[in-house]
Amino acid sequence: MSTPTLFSLDDFPVGCMVTDNKRHIVYSNRYIEEYFGYSPHELVDADLFSLLSKASQIIYEAYIVPLIAREGCCDEIRLTLVTSAEKLMPIVVSARHDSVYDRIFWSISSVSRSNQLFEKLTETKSLLEQKVSLLRTLKDTDPLTGLPNRAALTKYLDQEMLSRKRNGMAFAVAFVDLDGFKEINDRHGHHVGDKTLQLMAERLTGNLKSDDMVARFGGDEFVIFLKDCFSASLVEESLTRLVSKLAEPFKVDTLPLNLSASIGVTLYPQAKDVEPGQLIRQADQAMYQAKLAGKNQVCLFNTDNEVVQKEKHSELLAIRAAMEFGQFELYYQPKINMRTGKVFGVEALIRWNHPVEGLKGPATFLPVLSNTPTGLALGRWVITTALCQQQIWLQKGLKLQVSVNIDGYHLQHPQFLRDLSAILSDFPNLPKQLFEIEVLETSTIEDVSHVSSVLNACRLMGIRISLDDFGTGYSSLSHLRDLPVDTLKIDRSFVKNMLTSNNDLAILKGVIGFAHAFGYGLVAEGVETLQHSQRLVELGCECGQGIYIAKPMPARAFPTWIDEWYQQACQEKYKNSFV
Ligand code: C2E
Ligand code: CA
Ligand code: CA
What we know:
Elements: E1 15-19, E2 25-28, H1 30-36, H2 40-43, H3 54-71, E3 73-82, E4 88-98, E5 103-110, H4 111-138, H5 150-167, E6 171-179, H6 181-188, H7 190-206, E7 213-218, E8 221-226, H8 232-246, E9 250-252, E10 255-257, E11 260-268, H9 276-292, E12 298-300, H10 303-324, E13 328-337, E14 343-354, E15 358-360, H11 366-369, H12 373-395, E16 401-406, H13 408-411, H14 416-425, E17 435-440, H15 448-460, E18 464-470, H16 476-482, E19 487-490, H17 492-497, H18 502-518, E20 521-524, H19 530-539, E21 543-544, E22 553-554, H20 558-573
Parallel strand pairs: 11-12, 14-16, 16-17, 17-18, 18-19, 19-20
Antiparallel strand pairs: 1-2, 1-5, 3-4, 4-5, 6-8, 6-11, 7-8, 9-10, 13-14, 13-21, 13-22, 14-15
Helix pairs in contact: 3-15, 6-7, 12-14
The structure holds ligand C2E and calcium ion (2 copies).
């Protein structure tokens, strides 16, 4: 009888590692030692960070730690490991948290190995997908839900439009997109995702008239054809009922779940002739409006909307072209200490040198960029340009803190930290603590814990964070509790009214007292007169920016301004009151 072979973790063809709650390595198998060149005693008790590149340390703090805290595990995350020979080696890690012993179990493999596996998998997957799509076009049914598919609905719509033209009856086309489906799929896997789609398909068919038609368009998108629609309000009413049915909690196996749906709907006939495909696009656009308006609701398409969309599109094209032609420029507004007169920093504020309309302020073009790839590209441009300018000034002996404004959607974008690290790595000699990010307090921060970990990662890099327009947001204090912040910028509306409104003065005093108590830095915006400056200093807010000190100016004007400021302007403006 042969003896059974005993395997140990040392025989595993991947790296296995265990860390404690202080990131210290308590175990690593032979693979890690051999492959990455460490000896066993080098690894035991070592800080996991000593094996990771700087960027990976950030990813660890910003993504892996919150993910593990939330879900207990993370899968297939790419990091860079520093080998014992100090070479950088890309790796793929997965981790599980053991809550009993408060340990994290890691599996680690080199990227080349996982790439091979991945390539094989994608090859097989694409072959399978080709087969499936062939089968799908042969049949008119969506295999998962049993509903008609896109091809079937399009055919049906063509026929119906032909016959409606003859009999003149009205109908509606609705586009349904589930809100939060991706999270269910990502969090609980495809099995649960598939069951959810089947259940939603049942709810859709079960809550419509028998001669209405529901088709699955793909993913979590469905299209409904509603017959005999007498008025827009009736259609909206019945779809609103449908939305609340879809939002009812449900269970997959024993797992309690809930999601909602956004529905866009368009009516036929219309003033102008439309094609079937156009109707679906209109419903899709209206669905998008429903998402923007906060999801879980119905939005009716109207042709004005179409005009707005077209305008938005052409504005975006113009902005993209302006970026290419270098028409954007950063202006810089000084920030000073109003007690000593010292200029300690500048805020970068974007301007568009429009060839026809002249100099345009951010309010005229930033809103249309919200949540668009062009907006992200412009955000990256702002950071790069500001850093570049800071470097030029530093080389001339001007040491200034430079701050940039970052929109909420940019900050929350998964790519943000990677972009920022990449840009910063082009300026290795700049002291990071001289760079500051201003986060708009009112900007929509959807996932506070995510933003908080991003800001933490920024601070780990040495960057300072300031909360902009402080006091105007609906949740100033709760944001402060959750977000790691160095400085509060008091919104200019409070400063503006402090001399005339007791209410605003009281808020201002409250914010100043609060900042002192908790050790935040303070900068007042909108300092427009000497009285504002003096009163702010009396109240305990020494730092300010505003047109009394200087308007935002192009970079080339700054050296002259600062020379004049120190030579005479500051003494004149502050009547020699500086200490
Ligand atoms: P903000 O961050 O509150 O910037 C200060 C705004 O106040 C600037 O307007 C500035 O010109 C104006 N200002 C300065 N001193 C005074 C004063 O004494 N009185 C008054 N009433 N206003 C003063 P601007 O340049 O039009 O910028 C408006 C907003 O646009 C900024 O508000 C910021 O939220 C956003 N913004 C500007 N540049 C950028 C950028 O590069 N990226 C992003 N994402 N947002 C930017
Ligand atoms: Ca700002
Ligand atoms: Ca502000």
